[in-house]
């Protein structure tokens, strides 16, 4: 999906299929992976700080932006975080609101059963919010020369700004078709 680059010629690519972001050199050789199946659901964009020490990855299904060090260490999250992704992914499949206390489709060692019997965690509604610093389908990222991180918050119809460590700074935009308004901002 989205991609970015740094001043050392490294290219960063968000890869939703493998649930990670990947860094490659200009020859296409693997440099570093960020995330994985227990970290991401749908990474859609990536941006790098001007100094190259921070890698930001937007996950539209988690309604979060994850912050990594260059070496792949997860150091923070932007947005609402109401629990462990692995627990949400491995819970029993159910209709929304259905009691699952009697369900037992796990294997004998307690690991999740066949994926077809699991919830598709493609919209973790409890992670969504319209509060400042929280998201509803973040789509794309940009990092300014001063290190300010800009996030297009698609279904909240706004752009939010954060400092390099994830502290909320400001927001602009609203739903509409006039000046200062958006309809699902991207890019």
Low-pLDDT segments, ≥5 res:
92-120
Count of beta strands: 12
User: Which structural category do the helix and sheet elements fall into?
Assistant: mainly beta
Mean pLDDT: 84
| Straight-line distance between termini | 12 Å
Order of H and E elements: EEEEEEEEHEEEE
Q: What Rg do the Cα atoms give?
A: 18 Å
Q: Figure out the total of helices.
A: 1
Q: Describe the biggest sheet?
A: 4 strands, antiparallel
**Can you list the strand order of the major beta sheet?**
1-2-3-4
State the shape. globular
Share of helix, binned: under 10%
| Approximate strand percentage | 25-35%
State the main characteristics:
single chain, 187 residues, 12 strands, globular, 1 helix, 4-stranded antiparallel beta sheet, 3% helix, mainly beta
Describe the secondary structure blueprint for this structure.
Elements lengths: L2 E3 L5 E5 L4 E5 L5 E6 L7 E6 L5 E6 L4 E6 L4 E5 L6 H6 L47 E6 L5 E5 L4 E5 L5 E5 L15
Antiparallel strand pairs: 1-2, 2-3, 3-4, 5-6, 6-7, 7-8, 9-10, 10-11, 11-12
Explained architecture:
With about 190 residues, the protein is mainly β. The chain contains one helix and twelve strands, in the order E-E-E-E-E-E-E-E-H-E-E-E-E. It has one helix spanning about 85-90; strands at about 5, 10-15, 20-25, 30-35, 45-50, 55-60, 65-70, 75-80, 140-145, 150-155, 160, 170. A four-stranded antiparallel sheet has the order 1-2-3-4, with no helix packed on it. A four-stranded antiparallel sheet has the order 5-6-7-8, with no helix packed on it. The longest helix has 6 residues, at about 85-90. It is globular, with a radius of gyration of 18 Å. The chain starts with a strand and ends in a 15-residue tail after the last strand. Mean pLDDT is about 85; it is low at about 90-120.
